[in-house]
Specification:
By secondary structure, the chain is of the alpha/beta class. It has ten helices and seven strands. It has a seven-stranded parallel β-sheet, with helices on both faces. The longest helix has 22 residues. The mean pLDDT is 95.
Length: 293
């Protein structure tokens, strides 16, 4: 069901990819990220943003809309060179500077260096978006290895801590930190136990960081976005063909969401002109799944 004048597919064909976080250029259909009906109005004019996992999926769509609102954008990616180049071109097509940074968010030194590169090359930092994530399906808790558990937590929550620690010296009054959590933090997911645990941790991290004395005194707002089933490379890189074939059908809207449908929530939380009295909160963009929290 489409509730927008722009057409979105009701379903996606069965497909898989061999490794995470996945390649957007190999997906059919390609995720929609350019949001042609979204008109920028300078909400982030003169600001600098840093987005982790910005090479594809939700991160790419956020980069594009931030640029359309006037921000220069640095983004972190793991090793997806082709996707990263597409994101760079999309940011530059909006008339803003783009800075791709290859880094592993599990490495604290690499996170600190990414922040330093952003400040040095783009002139500052105003918005940090923690978005990079991995997930692995295991239906039996006994099959979750220590290596899998550590990789999931190091990517999905340790990396968030690392970037916040590095960014706090550069963020100031009116600036924002936005964390990507997930609908599974509120609904649970029996086959994604470790992933769900990290997303729950992100909710608590967001709420706690928003109340932290250092953050409050600096005038920084901290919020999160909880996407539902969004068509990103993580989906075919995680699930089998049957799951992909029915992806998003269990929502009220009966279809998967597209990255460009989530990205405006990040603009709202990034722009002080729109969300100056919003902190410690979570925006749910999930196609109609009713959740608490």
């Amino acid at each position: 069901m489409s509730t927008s004048p722009r057409e979105y597919p009701d379903s996606v064909p069965a497909q898989t990819q061999d490794q995470q976080p996945g390649d957007e250029h190999e997906m059919t259909p390609r995720p929609q990220f350019q949001a042609p009906q979204y008109v920028g109005s300078g909400k982030l004019e003169g600001k600098v943003a840093l987005v982790t996992g910005g090479d594809s999926g939700i991160g790419r769509a956020v980069c594009v809309l931030f640029a359309r609102e006037g921000a220069d954008v640095a983004f972190v990616y793991l090793d997806e060179e082709e996707d990263a180049q597409t994101t760079r071109e999309a940011i530059e097509a909006e008339g803003r500077r783009a800075l791709p940074i290859q880094a592993d968010v599990r490495d604290e030194d690499a996170c600190r260096d990414a922040v330093d590169q952003t400040v040095r090359q783009l002139g500052g930092l105003n918005v940090l978006v923690n978005n990079a994530a991995v997930q692995v399906v295991q239906t039996d808790p006994r099959d979750i290895s220590r290596d899998q558990l550590e990789r999931t937590f190091h990517t999905n929550i340790f990396g968030y801590f690392f970037f916040v620690k590095a960014a706090l010296d550069h963020l100031s009054e009116g600036d924002a930190i936005i964390n990507t959590c997930s609908v599974v933090a509120f609904q649970g997911s029996p086959g994604l136990l470790d992933y769900s645990a990290t997303k729950g941790a992100i909710v608590s991290f967001t709420r706690s960081l928003a109340q932290n004395e250092t953050v409050v005194e600096k005038g920084i707002r901290v919020n999160s976005v909880a996407p539902g089933p969004i068509w990103t490379p993580l989906i075919p890189a995680t699930f089998g063909e049957d799951k992909v074939d029915s992806f998003g059908e269990d929502t009220a809207l009966g279809r998967p969401g597209q990255p460009e449908e989530v990205a405006p929530a990040y603009v709202f939380l990034a722009a002080p002109s729109m969300s100056s009295y919003v902190t410690g909160q979570t925006i749910h963009v999930n196609g109609g799944r009713v959740v608490g929290g």
